[in-house]
Amino acid sequence: MENKKTILAIRDFIVSAEKSIKNAKKLLKDVLDENNIDINTEIDLDTNWLNSYNSWDAKIIEGIFTWEEMLGSDSNTYPVPVNYASKSKMVQWDKLKLTIEANGKMIYKQIEPIDRDTRTWLLTKEKEKYQVVSDWKTFNVLTAAVTHFKWNIWDTISILIPSWKDATFAAIDSIIPKD
Fold first, then answer.
1. Which CATH number characterizes residue 91's domain?
2. 46 belongs to a structural domain
3. Most trustworthy range by pLDDT among 16-20, 29-33, 165-169
4. CA neighbor of 134 nearest in space, from 149, 145, 144, 124
5. Which of 37, 78, 123, 179 suits 16 as a labelling partner, its CA being 20 to 30 A distant?
6. Which is it for the CA torsion 30, 31, 37, 40, positive or negative?
7. 43 lies in a domain?
């Protein structure tokens, strides 16, 4: 009789664990879909090749542009002003330099743009995020770029993407005039 209780308890633990795994997979899928992330795509966020150093009364950190942030050589993330990213047409994986002055002022400079490809696609909006949709991939774009230039959903736009690295973000280059 004791073995039967043990067996039933083990079965209940297994059923509970399976339900938990199923729920965790669903939550993960929802978060990945919401953020347009493909978990099967290998994203190299190695920052060992970047530098950090001090210069007089400022700290200088090199980093890579990840979308709305810079991942620094110190493994910290720093928010990149969207107006700067928009105007500079920054593409995911561009190399940046951040100077943090003694008074806390942060100055970004794009120092090494990644090789880029230009594509022409349609502008859409999904769950309050602007995106461009192609026949094979969806890329997020900065809302600031869309609203500043007053582009509309279903406008055809020219975007910039990395030519040799996978990305989830595209920089808007220009709008294609309608015929």
1. 2.40.50
2. no
3. 165-169
4. 124
5. 37
6. negative
7. no
Do 84 and 104 lie in a common domain? Answer: yes
Return contacts of 151-157, CB within 8 angstroms, 24+ apart.
151/123, 151/175, 152/123, 153/123, 153/124, 153/125, 154/122, 154/123, 154/124, 155/122, 155/123, 156/120, 156/121, 156/122, 156/123, 157/120, 157/121, 157/122, 157/123, 157/132
- Weakest mean pLDDT among 25-34, 127-136, 168-177: 25-34
For 163, the domain range is 116-175
* Whether residues 124 and 108 fall in one domain: no
List the structure tokens of 65.
């542009």
Q: What is the pLDDT of residues 103-124, one digit of tens each?
A: 999 999 999 999 999 988 889 9
Burial of 11 (0-12, 13-18, 19+ CB in 10 A): exposed
**Within a domain: 18:** yes
CA angle, 37 as apex, 159 and 31 as ends, to 5°?
Answer: 130
Total residue length of the chain: 179
* Other CB atoms within 10 Å distance of the CB of residue 82: 16
